[in-house]
Structures
1.
Amino acid sequence: VRTAPVALTTDAWIEIPPGGYPAWLESLSARRARSIRSEIRKFEKAGYELEHRTLAESWQDVARLLARSLLRYGRTVDVAPMADSFRKQGELAGSRAEVVLCSRPGEPPVGFCLYYRCGDTVYLRAHGLDHDQLVSAAEYFNLTYYMAARLPGVRWLHAGAGTAEGKALRGATLRPLWLLDLSEDSPLAGYDEEIREHNRALLARLRDSSPVVSGALEGELWGPYC
């Protein structure tokens, strides 16, 4: 890499202490821990059940629910090719592609979370919800973060980019996600100072966006290229 890295957005990581899920709750502020416990109680009261399967076993539900979730945000997709993509992914990944399906007893699933596990780290990779069938019981957070935090032996959750404040409220630290140009004739060559200015401006916008986001930023990882 011959040019300065370009900051794209935040990359969220949630550390689960050695004591597991209970220790994670204790590591949060009292207010945040109360909020999470309230969301878990709502989810349990709604009567949801979580079923752990592989992607190879559940790709049809995954595709259907992801399409329903995208539709809520105005994106209409053809389910068939997306389902075929998940089917192939499930065949290639085998037992490493794990899915949690959320449903009420005797009913089709209304949500899923697809994740991969490597050692003590869980990589949250996709989720989908049929919002018309939900009952406002914090389904998204229960199906993703709270489910994953309870998995035995987990020390890190990789929550990825986007929705920085919501992830920070669940205890995530926000690392920079960089673009690295590996080309020999990079169009970025000679613009290191402009890149650093861009990186500084992005960091400033994040700090100003909310106190929660500002407190979750890992400043020492941004500093060398700002």
2.
Amino acid sequence: MTKWAFVSDFDGTISKRDFYWLVIDAYFPEGRDLYPKWKSGEWKDVDFLAKVFGSIHQSEEQIAKDILSIPIDEDVPEFVRSVQAAGGDFFILSAGTDYYIKPIVESRGLENVTVLSNKGVYREQNIHLDIDPEHWSYSERYGIDKAIVIQRLKEEYDVVYFAGDSEPDSHPAVFADRTYAKEALPAILDEKGVPYVHFERFNDIKADLIKEGRLPE
């Protein structure tokens, strides 16, 4: 029996909005000036997120409300359960932080979903990244090295699928057995010569996996 896993990015892939944009729009408008510096490579991802998440200045209760207001692809809960019912394991792989991902997963009633992300803690009215440079998946730029994670999962699973939407996802896409790409990711993968299947919603992925015979109709 084939042992398989589905791995998905979170911000912009499962969620319809990146958490950092919620924070920038609500509490840190100065972040809009930092965004181009981050995208140009002048700022590392972890430094940009640390600055944004460290500029919230709200109670933990308010942040919790903000987190649960993040919209996600409506197809995701059913898709996750379909993967699990068909014998697959579901992972969320994010260079954001588990601080906001885990509550969203739990709020949708999803179980046995493994979240692989940067650890986040609430302290002094902000979210702080707690990154261990000695961890096997450490990345100086992203906090977590998605490519290394996929390679490690490939040692455990016969087939690993991956879904993503942006530049950090181009690195693990190289190692996944099949990558599903949306938003900015397809153009990046075209440039790299990495094959992918384009999708807009998770029901598109489900249809592809049904066609393959991985999921039942």
3.
Amino acid sequence: MIEKNKEYIFDIVDQGYEGEGIAKTEEGFTIFVPEALKGERVKIKIVKVKKNYAYGKLIEIITHSENREIPVCPIFKRCGGCSLQHTSYNNQLEIKTQRVKDCVTKIGKLDSSLVKNTLGMKNPYRYRNKVQLPVGINKGELQIGFFAPRSHDIINMESCFIQDEAADKVVKIVRAWIIKNNIKPYIVEGEYSKEGLLRHIMVRRGFKTYEVMVVLVTTSEKVPHKDELINALIEGIPEIKSIMLNISSKPTNVILGDKSIVLYGKDLISDYIGDFKFNISPLSFFQVNPVQTEILYSKALEFAGLSGKETVFDAYCGTGTISLFLSQKAKKVYGVEIVPEAIENAIENAKENGIDNVEFRVGKSEEIIPQMIEEGIKADVVVVDPPRKGCEKSLLEAIADMAPQRIVYVSCDPSTLARDLAILKEMGYETIKVQPVDMFPQTGHVEVVTLLVKER
């Protein structure tokens, strides 16, 4: 029987999706060991025991895995941003491929051979074009960084190796300004402060345009010494095109408020995915890894198999990024999204790129698409890119009743994807191939694009 606070030696026999090693007792009891790797022999201390599993703290690695690497980030063990820096990038890709295979076979009841190897990056660092950093004070020390896992404790950060370098420069300048002018952070000793002013620093960077946006998220419009900060940012980072103030006064975990004020430059920056230009505001959704986004969307376009004669539905279309990619080879694309602001952005993005064969509608996909079908609008191909919870069953039923020849399913959660693939199989759709794409290197997240065809 495994006991809390006792030390044990185990072989790590499997790998969890967030980089944790998995050990088994002779009776089959499971122990999760963060930072341990499959193939290693380790000494651990048990820190938590549940009915069917336990957690162990890594004390010593007796036998090292050939896949182990020294994390490039000095705060890797404490920060909640990354979970896989301790293993080689090739092994990260294998872990993600295996995760998708496990979901497809165990939940979807499909053959694992349908899953292709995960498409990775040449350089799996410095890929994120957006960062949101909480600002706080703890034991008298200013903290700017990421939250530790499952807490509001900020891990102080000088440099983040998965963010664009511009973010590091912004943080350094803002940090100096806060200290010099005694600006009060919003988070004090891990709790929200009624007197605090500065909540978050958000930085966005155009991957192809190099344009930089800085957003100060504050509880008030009144920011002392803001001109000093503006001048320091412009002088230190010439690529800055926009400095914004976002007002967020409610005591919630939601980072951005509804009101934004321009302090310098424009209220947006621009960037490209493929040949398409997109305008990005503080509140805009835009994929954080533009390199892999282009690969993901190109794969979705390939799976759609368009010849120029097809009508396509793009469910959960967001700001229209996939819709624009599909428009290159479709006769007509209809995008549906529940967020009105996203549809406004989608319409503007289509105009910006001179695309006239797309139409966007606001509402729930599971409600709007059946209405479109009743209007006599039917799709030859349907693309879905739902949130983490997957597609509503009513939407899948409406799609199946319409009987498009192909469905392209883009997913950020392999488990809900696999569930929906099983549902679609019952509705007469065969899964042809499942392609994972590594949108978030150094983390356990993986994006997947899947092709399904109507069974004859």
4.
Amino acid sequence: MHETRVRTTAPEPAVTAPHDRPGGPLPWLTAVGLAFLVLQLVVVVPGSGLAWDETVYVSQAGGNAPPAFFSAPRARGISYLVAPVAALTASTAVLRIYLALLSAGALVAALYVWRKVLPTPVLVCAGAFFAGLWPTLFYGSAAMPNPWCALGALAATGWVARPVRDGAAGRREAVGAGAAVAIVALMRPADGFWLALPLVLAVVVVPGRRRPGVGAALVAGLVAGCAPWTAEAYARYGGLGARLHRAGEIQGGLGWNIAVDDHLRALAGRTLCRPCDIGWESPGTALWLTVLPVLVVVGVVVARRSGRGAVVLLAALTGLSMAVPYLFLVGYAAPRFLLPAYALLSVPLAECLVHLFMRARHARRPGGVALLALVLAAHLTAQFLVVSHVVRVSRATTARFTAMAGALNRSGVKPPCVVSGADAVPIAYYAGCASRQTAGHDASTTPAALREAARHVPTAVLVAPGEAPPAWAGDRRTVPLPPGNGAASYRGYVLPVVAPDGTGQARRPR
């Protein structure tokens, strides 16, 4: 009689959810959020002013000046976000603190969504990496939509990752995913589309993982988030197609544009690289981005061995999707554009680093943790040096614009007033004036309308160094403007007040 042996295969080890452990990931994630908050409050917030784009968004809700012209590509999500503060005070410091608190809390919340599919060390490492990037630190307290797109994308992908892993989707996952996509689309409709695309495909097309309810929630969130932008397109631009066309013109035309090298150069501390015809000022600042694709691939591979391959691959593919338009379709670079991609790619990156330093076969856990901490410390040090440089440049620009605004006020250009010309948008905001342009992306008036406005309110035109004042300015009065930080002086001209008989006399200080 022969003995029959039954060969069995050990089941794949289940992924231990971090929330099943005592304490869970929340205390660790809270520590990451607090560190992010403190760095913003200590390094970025003190002495900072509103940049050009920020003055546009904040002025829609209050702040220090009438609403600036709102161009076709912009969406009003960030104006809604700052409205509770901007409607009450023009203090930039209060606004910065408000946004820093919100962004730190949102970072913790977005990471916490992943608690059922990723272990605590991966979550903490991903959060530390993303929060430590200089664009994240610099824009965390800024009135800009990009960090909110990043945090919304991280949360949306986390909500979708849960049914992808568990095979079942409850109402909570569907509502969470739809709401997060809506927030991203409200901030930047294009980002909402590139976020929803891979997530919808993951839950509708992939065999064995179809969750039509989640897919419907994602589409509904995208439509809801884009609704204000679409309604405004019909109200102001004559339709959605017309607004999309105008938005493309302002962005230099959307098409095949390889901007990878532009983004690498911009990481040296350029908040906007347009055109990005600069040299490699500091190649070392882009080193981490050049190795990021390799680390992401390794992270996906090791996550698969741990039973988390599907969710980590989802994060990687969604991050890649959100990077595609800025790397290959837009002909210029700004580090903030890639914040959503960085947030999502931090997940497979963290899987890679945690595996290499804490789970490798011959690694000792205490030594691995120390080495991982050393790698993160080196990364944070490099990012700190760049963000310190960016903050210094930002403060210098703010000081220059503030000085010019003060010179205009002292020359009689006081609220209510109108400012046009070079850098008129931020300078007008600091002066408490409306900004109106006769040409360019923000064209919203005509020379005749400006001359008419001068009959009722002080109206000034700013001219950049080396340029001549516009001929239509007439018998204008020159306003001396401070150069600021060694820069060549702008020139300001106060338009004459035209009398009914056609004679004109420039306004005098009041």
